[in-house]
TrEMBL record:
Top-rank lineage group of the source organism: Bacteria
Name of the featured protein: dTDP-4-dehydrorhamnose 3,5-epimerase
Keyword terms: Isomerase
Assembly description: Homodimer.
InterPro entries, A to Z: RmlC-like, RmlC-like_jellyroll, RmlC_Cupin_sf
GO biological process: dTDP-rhamnose biosynthetic process; polysaccharide biosynthetic process
One cellular component (GO) term of this entry: cytosol
Family per similarity comment: Belongs to the dTDP-4-dehydrorhamnose 3,5-epimerase family.
Gene behind the chain: rfbC
Catalytic activity line of the entry: dTDP-4-dehydro-6-deoxy-alpha-D-glucose = dTDP-4-dehydro-beta-L-rhamnose
Length: 190
């Protein structure tokens, strides 16, 4: 997983990693997770236990913003295998100097990048192309009884989604609270 750069943000914790693709006449090869290189880059020790693969047919499909509460909190390592997404995370670590602030970025399958999101963030994404495939690692198993969320277009989290009309949402994603009503289960140390 040769990491060519690690971009950090004004919010501590998340990181966008750019990776190297080895190209030849057949195409290219890319390591997307390598424990040794991760450690050498100084990234936090994480115990990835599950990989997820999500297909979204419609452009404007919006998933989130989701989290699992401790003791089943999840860090996530996100990549796009086909298409493009607008990815958004909101800091919900109580006591964090950046509580309520967000990081938003576009992930594109044409660019070898992975987005690392530590526990303590609500996470969501919106597809910018039809037939988009997102692949991600998480550090705890699916525990639906611990799931929580934030309303994707809540006024308080103020995420500048590229598509606001005619989005495709799951039923439950209509009903999450806005940031002001969230009782966050995270503290900065989680
Ligand atoms: C998340 C998840 C879902 N499922 C099942 C439950 C359900 O039948 C189906 C779809 O689940 P959901 O509606 O929760 O899928 P989705 O809305 O894509 O949920 C995901 O959203 C993104 C933004 C995240 O950050 C993820 O952590 C996860 O919460 O897949 C699993 O079996 N394992 C899992 O880990």
């Amino acid at each position: 997983m040769p990491i060519t750069s690690v971009e950090t943000f004004s919010i501590s914790g998340p990181a966008l990693l750019s990776l190297k693709r080895a190209g030849d006449e057949r195409g290219w090869f890319c390591e997307t997770w390598n424990a040794r290189d991760w450690k050498e880059a100084g990234l936090p020790q994480e115990n990835w236990v599950q990989d997820n693969y999500a297909f979204s047919a419609e452009i404007g499909t919006t998933r989130g913003l989701h989290f699992q509460a401790p003791p089943h909190a999840q860090a996530k390592l996100i990549q796009v295998v086909r298409g493009r997404i607008f990815d958004a995370i909101v800091d919900i670590r109580t006591g964090s100097p950046t509580y309520g602030q967000s990081v938003c970025l576009v992930l594109n399958s044409d660019q070898p990048q992975v987005f690392y999101i530590p526990a303590g963030f609500a996470h969501g994404y919106q597809t910018l192309d039809p037939d988009t495939l997102v692949y991600y690692k998480v550090t705890d198993h699916y525990a639906p009884e611990t799931e929580g969320g934030l309303l994707w277009n809540g006024e308080r989290s103020a995420i500048d989604w590229p598509i606001r009309e005619h989005v495709t949402l799951s039923k439950r994603d209509h009903d999450w609270p806005d940031l002001g009503a969230l009782k966050s289960p995270f503290t900065q140390a989680d």
